[in-house]
Amino acid sequence: MKTITEFPQETRVIENVFIPMRDGARLAARIWMPVDAEQKPVPAILEYIPYRKRDSSRGRDELNHPYMAGHGYVCARVDLRGSGDSDGVMVDEYRAQEHEDAEDVIAWLAEQPWCDGKVGMMGISWGGFNSLQLAARQPPALKAIISASATDDIYVDNMHYMGGCLLGDNLSEATVMFAFNSLPPDPQIVGERWRDMWHERLAGSGLWLETWLEHQRRDDYWKTASVCEDYSQVQCPVMAVGGWADGYTNAVFRLMENLDVPRKGLIGPWGHKYPHLGVPGPAIGFLQEVVRWWDHWLKDRDTGVMDEPMLRAWMQDSVSPASSYEDRPGRWVAEDQWPAPGIEDREFTLRGHHLEETGSGTDQHGESDAEISMKSPLSVGMFAGKWASYAAVPDLPFDQREEDGGAIFFESRPLTEDLEIFGLPECHLEVSADRPVAMLAVRLSDVNLDGEATRVTYGLLNLTHRDGSEDPSPLEPGKKYRVTVPLNGIAQSFPAGHRLRLSISTSYWPLAWPSPEAATVSLTTGVSSLTVPQRARRPEDSRLREFGEPEAAAPLEITQTQPGRHHWRVTRDLATNVSSLEIANDQGAFRIEDTGSHIRRGTEEWYSFRWNDVNSVRGETRTVRRVERQDWGAEVTTSTVLTSTPTEFIIDAELDAYELDPQRGDPRVYSQSWHRRIPRDLV
């Protein structure tokens, strides 16, 4: 990362400004701007998230916002209502109050003397979501957005459910927000009312996991904030950004296909990170691209950004399997439109235990069509990695030979020439099951000459959602169904001599919660197939404009006072038959020098099961968050346990809050516990 300290314009920062809302509440903003903005107004850029501008997101903010401000923009990092130093209580994500507040913020920015009336909005993850959502609400001053690691469909691509299966990341995300929502505002910003605001949050934010588990199908709860319900509502230009190791990248394809506004898509090898911070690399000069985008749409400058292809993506080369990569080798490819007319479906038939090229002639292996049954052990999935890689721990899938022993798989003959795919593969399967609820996990792997199997992409399907997730229906045991399992989009090269492997299992724990009963699923070969989007190499790809090296403003000055701890461990106790995945993402403790605040952040997760008992699965998370200075401090600990029976999900959660005052005999100031039972809805 190249640190930039001199910019075209000199800037200043306002540590905090309170922005008034229509109901009298105030949202806290940190603002960077050119020093002469009041004399020469410029466009404003909004990033609007719940991750505490004063401390938690401060490091990333320092890299991004001074950079954009130095190129002639006012940048505002605003805490959502109920987060950081803003008023109120936050009770869920992407609700109407959040959007109404954002409209008020955008209008306020546009009216300030240092703003020329034009506003852009950007963000990654939560900020990418609400950038899309606000674009669909069409506030007059919002002229363009950048949405990274986000989605147009809250049910399909957002940590909660995938293919109608409950994701383990549903518990992880609920844990993140449980911890954030329980922290106090900073008295240096809000004054003496900090304690009252804190206790209001502790008592009022609630257990988000309960809410998310109450909506197990794609109902109005999810549709309300999903811009895919009406793409025509988005009327401003959109840059959509994703990474192959992330969980949101399919949305980039849908946005390119369905939006009817100027748009650009960018997909790299990265996990859940901005591209200039991207891991696996290569990271790129993303902030330079951001400035080009804003200059074009907010300053009417011809930067050439709209003369380039609509969609640009990193075609990944073949690599040996690993749970983390510093870089993924490959090259950039591009398409002028999506769907791309030059990409053609290549079909393989599942026959015997092989992938036979459809239309290649007679059965190359001399095997007749048959039914193959599977009932996977719960251990399949322990090496699957995270639904979305955060690059904080080794959270990518490992050698799939560790998983395929509990699956059925179909393997192609060695490729006679290189194969490159770009897009979304699909499986078309004929299946039956012996239980009313069953799931499939489908994985496409690259098998190299040493036999190592690297997962390229995967998909999940709760078979009760075979006709969609709005109105699932139980399976009739023994009845055959034709189902389609979409796999995540990917750009991947398979070298000549390698094989494609399609693996199918009936469990994928803990990435996905298992079905309420262990089901046997039978698959009919011969009529089942895999389709991959084949893309021929093109000489014009080598002539694409090169990205610059990653740049950012000067990093936040911090002092590490306690080391972090990161690991990803799989264990099996042969005496008890209990297997566990233990994840530690402990960032230790550090001091932010410019505020004098000491920050402590740690999260641990455990996912376990006993032998093949689907109702022994257990997810447990614990967090500790502390913020303090010499004269003030608070610590919050949370614990959440999710288990299940054949008919219910069971949540047990605890929250304890401590005021770090040496004069107090008992520093604990708040404690609450929850026990909730939620009926399973064909999940």
TrEMBL record:
Keywords: Hydrolase
Protein name: CocE/NonD family hydrolase
Source organism superkingdom: Bacteria
Gene Ontology molecular function terms on file: hydrolase activity
Residue span, Xaa-Pro dipeptidyl-peptidase C-terminal domain: 291-545
Stored InterPro entries: AB_hydrolase_fold, CocE/Ser_esterase, Galactose-bd-like_sf, Xaa-Pro-like_dom, Xaa-Pro_dipept_C, Xaa-Pro_dipeptidyl-ppase/CocE
Pfam family, one: PepX_C
